[in-house]
Amino acid sequence: MFTGLVETKGRLVRRTAKGPDARLVIEGRLAVDDSPVELGESISVDGVCLTVAALPEPKTVVFEADASAETLAKTTLGGIAEGAAVNLERAVPLGGRMGGHIVSGHVDGVGAIARKEPIGEAMKVVFEVPKELMRFIAPKGSICVSGVSLTVNNVSGTSFDVVLVPHTQSVTTLDALGAGAKVNLEVDLLARYVARLMEAKDPAAGDAAWLDRLQRAGYM
Q1: Second-level CATH architecture of 109-192
Q2: What local confidence, expressed as pLDDT, does residue 195 receive?
Q3: Which of 60, 72, 92, 143 suits a disulfide with 96, CB 3.0-4.6 Å?
Q4: What is the Cα–Cα distance from 25 to 7, expressed in whole angstroms?
């Protein structure tokens, strides 16, 4: 699991095809001295959970990961240019600080920046979203955009907007992206499972009690 709090901006060094899949080489300084990246650990790359498959050198700032054909097709990792900046976050340790929200690194869809509007030192960003994801996005709810935990301000039609504070602008790649740029989207985990529960509800199986508890807790 991740939190959506980006640790550093890295870059895609190289993407090498392996049949329908690809080997990604990624550079990023992720706690190299205190806690070096290890083989097999999970790292969020622009919101996509990848497994470290190779480390060229001990305590390196470069790691390699394999991306399946599904990942390349359903996220931005199959299309971004070599040399492009990416947001990086290591998996949160058990008992670690949860500063953003629960992020799995399983991308639900790809959206695009519709427009950006300065608000003082902050920046309002409007995203266009696949229609099927809109039922999971609510005002003041959480969403992960290319690995960044953000709070939804407004929702309208097939779009939502957020406000990037100066810190988020400086430590993530979102500030450099212009209108039309593609982003990975992961909806809030709770919203996804509440929606699934509603679709599959069966009072005879005991779901009615759970639905009642969710309603009383304000989730429905």
Answers
A1: Beta Barrel (2.40)
A2: 75
A3: 92
A4: 18
| pLDDT tens digit sequence for 181-208 | 999 999 988 777 777 777 766 555 556 6
**DSSP secondary structure, 121-187, as one string:** TEEEEEEE--GGGGGG--TT-EEEETTEEEE--EEETTEEEEEE-HHHHHHSSGGG--TT-EEEEEE
User: 11 is written with which tokens?
Assistant: 């870059």
Phi, psi values for residue 177, rounded to 5°: -85, 135
Other Cβ atoms closer than 10 A to 27: 16
Q: Between the CA of residue 54 and those of 4, 51, 60, 139, 192, what are the distances in Å? A: 24, 9, 11, 41, 33
Q: What is the pTM of this model?
A: 0.86
Question: For domain 8-90, is the CATH number 2.40.30.20?
Answer: yes
Structure tokens at 104: 């799995």
CA distance 79 to 168: 24
Instruction: Kindly give the parts of the chain with pLDDT less than 50.
Output: none
Q: Kindly report, as residue ranges, where domains of CATH 2.40.30.20 are found in the chain.
A: 8-90, 109-192
